[in-house]
Amino acid sequence: MAPIALALNGLRRQPQFHLVSNEDSVYEQDILRDPGSVKPWLAYIDFKLRHGTMVEQAFVMERACAQLPRSYKLWKLHVAKLNPAIFATEYRKANALFERALILLNKMPRIWEMYLKFLSQQPLVTFTRRAFDRALRALPISQHNRIWAVYRPFANSAAGETAVKIWRRYLQVHPEDAEDFIELLVQTGLYTEAAAKFIDILNNTRFVSKHGKGHFELWSEMVDMLVEHAAEIETGYETGIDAERIIRSGISRFADQRGKLWAGLATYWIRRGSFERARDVFEEGITTVMTVRDFTLIFESYTEFEESIIGTLMEVASVRAEKGLEDEEADFELDIRMMRFEQLMDRRPFLLNDVLLRQNPNSVPEWEKRVALWGGNKREVAQTYTDAIAAIQPKRAVGAFHQLWASYAKFYEQGGDLRNARIIMEKAVKVPFKSVAELADMWIEWAEMELRNENFDDAVRIMAKAVQAPKRSTVDYFDESLSPQQRVHKSWKLWSFYVDLVESVSTLEETKKVYERIFELRIATPQTVVNYATLLEEHKYYEESFKIYERGLDLFSYPVAFELWNLYLTKAVDRKIGIERLRDLFEQAVEDCPPKFAKTIYLMYGNLEEERGLARHAMRIYERATRAVADEDRADMFNLYITKSASNFGLPSTRPIYERAIAALPDSEAKDMCLKFADMEKRLGEIDRARAIYGHASQFCDPRTNPEFWTKWEQFEVQHGNEDTFKEMLRIKRSVQAQYNTDVNFIASQALARSQRRPGTDDAEISDAMAALERQSRAPQGFVTATTGSNGGSAMPTAVVASNPDAIDIDGLDD
């Protein structure tokens, strides 16, 4: 129940003066003293709210509103104290109270808000809608937002046509909420109006989505709706909606969505029942898209469409067959659609190839794939070659464009039409290819075609035409500003094929002319020189062959010249020409030869003198070689020099060679040379000289890293020395070890070793390197037996313990 509403009803029927108590007299007197003031009434109402009953509160508020009907405070306080109603009668009485308040307070938005919210709780849609309309008419437009904030939820709850009409009015004031209106239209099923609204906001450049959606996202939502509800949307001039035009505009504008949009447009016509138009759209899509992804998307949709139609027709045919009915037209249509589907699947490789060619019509491999697709269809193959040559721009060709021309000519050649093949070749050599190499390959292909057909003279004539050039050509082969046709006469590949061809089918004189022309154009390579010289040698023109080598040496420097000298000198030596001429050649060869290549030439030179000249000259050459060769070859050269000198003049002749080798070689190689020198002296019986050599070599040998040297010296002293010489060897060994121990790196390594050694190690014993050396020098020295002393003798009473690891204990010593 609503007690206040009932109280109001009773108050209107008869006065209720008994509701005024003695405690109210103060407030009643204040009201009598100032009847036009709101303040006494507010105080009176506040008192009743704290101490009065509901009926008393209603009685006082009703009197106040009747006394001051234009008081916003009193009316707001009055209607705010209404209790929630339960029955319809109470709702109507409360509504009546709001209506009374709004008679004079129709400009008060808060009263309207309270009233409209109260009405929204009641199932009075029309009455409530009219109340909202009255509020919008009564209030100024600046306050309409407060009403719309309540009106919109009411419209959404009302739904249907009512909600749509309310939202249409709302958008006139707030067009930024068009997305919510479109959502409502879609939910209501008014797809045509939703599409029209989409078009409005997309055409409005100032529209900004309050949901953060971009122009493309809104456009995509519209297209999805157009496709999904194609049958329900009215299109035409009257509605201003042209779905096909909208989707096609997206196809031209959004390149990355073309596959999806083509499939969507076809689906639109399928849902409208226009299957033939859908098929036309599919065909247009697969023949215009530029990417394989889009093609795959459209083609799969196309095949699914065809399969669904065929499946439906087959089901109908099956039902018809079960009933024993015949329909030739239906069966014919099914056959036609089956044939169309098979043809579509057969066309797939060609359609996919079309896509790749649309991406890049200059792709030679894709054109070759298209030729392969046609297989034995000669007419289509020829047409494909024609289309490819017309489409490809030579400067932008991807792949071997000349190979496409060659394949085109070979197609006619294999068909026995050599005349057309030659016409194609003539056109091909005039094409401005990207590089000279491609043009050269084209000329070679033409010549090879003539060779395959045994037209040898024509092949030579073609190559002569290819390399035709002025007598003195100043053209730079690498000058990209000139066309390939202007530079092709300097192509080594072309000349190489030409000279091989002339050599195989023409005379020697013709071949020599070609080689001479190569030298004139200054495009000869080392291989050209070798081939020319070998050709002349095969025909017994040895002197001319040697001249070719000399011309090649004038053209090329090292390292190429080394290979030419190697061949030239070998050929000259084998020909047994005069020794003086050979010496002149070798002198020319070694004159400017870098050390890296000198060893081989000097060895050949020395070998020549040994075989055909004088041994003295050979030794002089080997001596020069030890100075001319590279550092890594010098030790080998000295060893060879020593060997040759010993074999020709005896071992004593090698002494100055050894001495110079030891002085010239680095320490690591000088050590080995000293050992060989000492061994040689030992064999000659020159023990003192050998000992002196060991002493000289000791400065290169650290006892820690070269123990084998000191072992050999020790063995030498044991065999050939005495006590004094052995002591001297040990003294030298200690001094050398001390010399190397003072090296900074050794000291650092010793310090690192000490820091890593176990704590239990005797620190006094390993204090530092110098202290160790001092202890070593103070240790008692052992003795060695001289080779000339007595073998017998009494033993020492006690053994001497030597702390020096290099000292040797003996049991007797002769005075």
TrEMBL record:
Family matches, as Pfam families: HAT_Syf1_CNRKL1_C, HAT_Syf1_CNRKL1_N, HAT_Syf1_M
Superkingdom classification of source: Eukaryota
Pre-mRNA-splicing factor SYF1 central HAT repeats domain span: 179-392
Pre-mRNA-splicing factor Syf1-like N-terminal HAT-repeats domain boundaries: 23-176
Entry GO terms, CC: post-mRNA release spliceosomal complex; Prp19 complex; U2-type catalytic step 2 spliceosome
Chain segments carrying region Disordered: 777-799
GO biological process: generation of catalytic spliceosome for first transesterification step
Keywords: mRNA processing, mRNA splicing, Nucleus, Repeat, Spliceosome
Main localisation: nucleus
Keyword Repeat belongs to the record: yes
Domain (Pre-mRNA-splicing factor Syf1/CRNKL1-like C-terminal HAT-repeats): residue spans on this chain: 394-776
Places the protein is found: Nucleus
Subunit structure as annotated in this protein's UniProt entry: Associated with the spliceosome.
Function, in words: Involved in pre-mRNA splicing and cell cycle progression.
Family the UniProt entry places it in: Belongs to the crooked-neck family.
Name of the molecule in the record: Pre-mRNA-splicing factor SYF1
Organism in which the protein naturally occurs: Neonectria ditissima
